[in-house]
Amino acid sequence: MSLLSSINRKNADPPDDPAAPPAELRVVPARHPWRWVFALIVLVLCAQFAHGLATNPGWDWYTFGGYFFEKSIVRALLVTLELTLAGAVLGFLGGIVLAAMRLSKNPVLAAVSWTYTWVFRSVPLIVQLLFWANIGYLYETLQVGVPFGPGFFRFETLHLVSSLGAALLGLALHEAAYAAEIVRAGIISVDQGQLEAAAALGIPRGRQFRRILLPQAMRAILPSAANELVNLLKSTSVVYVLAIGELFYQVQVVYGRNGRVVPLLMVATVWYVILTAALSVLQYYVERHYARGALRTLPPTPLQRLFALRRAGGAR
């Protein structure tokens, strides 16, 4: 921020000739001393935290380095990624169906969708996982056939839903409840008048969805969806209650054997941070792709900013 002030009183007086050029003004930069004091305090606190990370022997960076790429940790990391990917795909597919049901003019479909979302958002994920893991206690068999009548095919739930299946089922159904609201919010954010105008021009409904509704809805859906995906990645740590060898469970197994709790927790923490950073980069480029319809000039990518800085430095 800056202020404009006249150099002397003579320049501040109104000019006699209206056609004369404006008086010369001097730019006075605004001072923000307390802002710099606060920034200095933050830097000192950050430096103290970094110094503690480097010098405190309790972090045990040697053990951290030894286990960061250990085979069992890497296998557990792959299980975490598989659960995240499968839960996200199945969850958002279910969320799209639920959102369509909620927006339907059929009151039964809308009520069922609302009830599903209400129940699955109300029950904690860990409780849902334990329910799905014990479904064999509630229903010993499942059958396909006439409702309330004879069945043609019969499955034993004890062998049908394994621990991994229960984890995947719980994550997908839990994710679908949140994805349904994200998709519904994106759809209703598009002005209804645009669809009415497209219909008046005779544009088919499928083309209305692809060319008008979807690009605009995606701009509202993507930030929340990416946030939900990061949340799902961290929620996979809850499936340790089913004794599935994902990242957090494997870390607990290892520090249960060697007693190195803090460095093993840091191994899991750093891997979660790396995966979240990768998802954030992916989110940036996908949002940038769908911003083409709203912005005349897309924001530069980090590489483009770096090249621009190099060109500016070379020009000097």
Automatic annotation (TrEMBL):
<keyword id="KW-0472">Membrane</keyword>
<keyword id="KW-1003">Cell membrane</keyword>
<dbReference type="InterPro" id="IPR000515">
    <property type="entry name" value="MetI-like"/>
</dbReference>
<keyword id="KW-0812">Transmembrane</keyword>
<feature type="transmembrane region" description="Helical">
    <location>
        <begin position="36"/>
        <end position="54"/>
    </location>
</feature>
<feature type="transmembrane region" description="Helical">
    <location>
        <begin position="74"/>
        <end position="98"/>
    </location>
</feature>
<keyword id="KW-1133">Transmembrane helix</keyword>
<dbReference type="GO" id="GO:0006865">
    <property type="term" value="P:amino acid transport"/>
</dbReference>
<feature type="transmembrane region" description="Helical">
    <location>
        <begin position="118"/>
        <end position="139"/>
    </location>
</feature>
<keyword id="KW-0813">Transport</keyword>
<comment type="similarity">
    <text>Belongs to the binding-protein-dependent transport system permease family.</text>
</comment>
<dbReference type="InterPro" id="IPR035906">
    <property type="entry name" value="MetI-like_sf"/>
</dbReference>
<feature type="transmembrane region" description="Helical">
    <location>
        <begin position="261"/>
        <end position="286"/>
    </location>
</feature>
<feature type="region of interest" description="Disordered">
    <location>
        <begin position="1"/>
        <end position="20"/>
    </location>
</feature>
<dbReference type="Pfam" id="PF00528">
    <property type="entry name" value="BPD_transp_1"/>
</dbReference>
<dbReference type="GO" id="GO:0022857">
    <property type="term" value="F:transmembrane transporter activity"/>
</dbReference>
<dbReference type="InterPro" id="IPR010065">
    <property type="entry name" value="AA_ABC_transptr_permease_3TM"/>
</dbReference>
<dbReference type="GO" id="GO:0043190">
    <property type="term" value="C:ATP-binding cassette (ABC) transporter complex"/>
</dbReference>
<feature type="transmembrane region" description="Helical">
    <location>
        <begin position="237"/>
        <end position="255"/>
    </location>
</feature>
<keyword id="KW-0029">Amino-acid transport</keyword>
<dbReference type="InterPro" id="IPR043429">
    <property type="entry name" value="ArtM/GltK/GlnP/TcyL/YhdX-like"/>
</dbReference>
<feature type="domain" description="ABC transmembrane type-1">
    <location>
        <begin position="77"/>
        <end position="283"/>
    </location>
</feature>
<feature type="transmembrane region" description="Helical">
    <location>
        <begin position="159"/>
        <end position="180"/>
    </location>
</feature>
<protein>
    <submittedName>
        <fullName>Polar amino acid transport system permease protein</fullName>
    </submittedName>
</protein>
